[in-house]
Design goal:
heterodimer, A: about 210 residues, alpha+beta, Immunoglobulin-like, 2 domains, 6 helices, about 30% helix, B: about 190 residues, mainly alpha, Rna Polymerase Sigma Factor, Chain: A, Arc Repressor Mutant, subunit A, 9 helices, globular, binds zinc ion
């Protein structure tokens, strides 16, 4: 359960490179939260990991990339500016069964090849870091399994389904010791996203439900 | 516009200044696209990743914290995370490890003075990566840039998992030693 400093340092490189997953990662993070000397050790590895990306070659994007990108910014201009919470009273009980299955599949096998009807997408925080994941079913309503395990401050959050410029409240989620999970159901469309919204109304992380 | 620092450009973009936004995209698109295509291999997918990375920078620019690294580092980390997630969802291990490890490493060149220190570090890291034993360099590039887990490195290289972990760890320790040791030439 609790790791020794030596075991944590053995895993420091993989943690810094972002390739440590699941329980290993959680155990290391737990140790780091109370061990400044291992924190410093990992921090030095983080610097190396960050700088490695600077070594990738530059390359010219395809013709028209810049105007296309700027246009994409324009079409997103008003997204999220308007808050329109619509409480959803109906929590489809049937879908919860499916979401339990989803969770079991994530635990058993993160490649999810056994379940083609499920899709797992990353939950990305404001600094672009992956803070968790959302698994959803291709059913109506969709079963959703939301889990957060990194870099989100403890507290209570609203879970919102973001659809265009509308946010629909689908549940609440408590992050304790850096971890939180939520299972439920919602009617989703292809371009929707799931976001954690803090008490002040800020979206702290977001997962795009692309299939 | 090119004399404006990266931080100021990002700040301007976050504040909604269209000129800053255009200059930001112009300044970073080659870095972002270059990293994206290195990881995902396919130009179309790389364009999607690069556009999404810039979109996230545009949307979340106000959350950037300069104490945690340069704008370039922040943006490249966003790009890598997106590219790796694309690879995980769409085509596990679709990129040939050979291509990734054979990639021409970027050498640093003249940039604004504010970045001199960072680029000095990047230049030292570049030299240190080139000096690594071949098998360690392959492991660290697959893991550090391609996002290969130790298990995936082991599969790609046809080596035991423990060996892959050791190569990654040893390479990181060597690179870290180079960065934390003052450059003798200074
Ligand atoms: Zn420790």
């Amino acid at each position: 359960m609790t790791l020794e400093c030596a075991e944590v340092r053995e895993r420091a490189a993989e943690l810094a490179l972002g390739i440590l997953d699941g329980k290993d990662r959680a155990d290391v993070l737990t140790h780091l939260s109370s061990c400044p000397s291992c924190q410093a050790f990992v921090e030095e590895h983080n610097e190396v990991a960050d700088l490695l990306l600077h070594l990738a070659p530059e390359a010219d994007p395809p013709l028209g990339f810049q105007p296309r990108t700027l246009r994409a910014f324009g079409s997103q201009q008003h997204r999220g500016r308007r808050r329109m919470f619509i409480a959803v009273a109906a929590a489809a009980a049937a879908a919860i069964i499916a979401s339990v299955t989803a969770v079991r599949i994530i635990d058993a096998d993160r490649t999810e090849q056994a379940a083609p009807a499920l899709r797992t997408v990353p939950m990305i925080g404001t600094d672009g870091v992956k803070v968790g994941r959302v698994t959803f079913s291709k059913s109506t309503p969709a079963a959703l399994a939301v889990s957060v395990d990194y870099a989100v401050p403890d507290g209570d959050y609203d879970l919102a389904l973001v659809s265009g410029n509308a946010e629909e409240l689908i549940g609440t989620m408590t992050i304790a010791d850096g971890q939180g999970e939520w299972n439920g159901a919602a009617a989703i469309n292809d371009d929707d996203a799931v976001a954690l919204v803090s008490a002040s109304g800020a979206r702290v992380c977001e997962a795009e439900l692309r299939s | 516009m090119w004399s404006v620092t990266d931080d100021a450009l990002l700040e301007g973009m976050a504040a909604g200044d269209p000129d800053a936004t255009e200059a930001f995209v112009a300044r970073f698109q080659r870095r972002v696209f270059g990293l994206a295509i290195t990881i995902v291999g396919d130009p179309r997918a790389a364009e999607d990743v690069a556009q999404e990375a810039l979109l996230r920078a545009w949307r979340h620019g106000a959350a950037y914290d300069p104490r945690r690294g340069s704008v370039t580092t922040w943006l490249l980390a966003i790009t890598r995370n997106l590219a790796i997630d694309v690879m995980r969802v769409r085509r596990p291990l679709a990129i040939a490890p050979e291509e990734l490890v054979a990639m021409p490493l970027r050498t640093s060149h003249a940039e604004p003075a504010t970045l001199a220190v960072a680029h000095d570090d990047a230049a030292r890291l570049h030299a240190a990566v080139a000096d690594l034993p071949d098998e360690q360099r392959r492991a660290i590039l697959l893991a550090g840039i391609g996002g290969f887990s130790a298990r995936e490195v082991a599969e790609a290289e046809g080596i035991p998992l423990g060996t892959a972990k050791t190569r990654i760890r040893t390479a990181m320790l060597r690179l870290r030693a180079v960065l934390v040791t003052p450059d003798p030439a200074e």
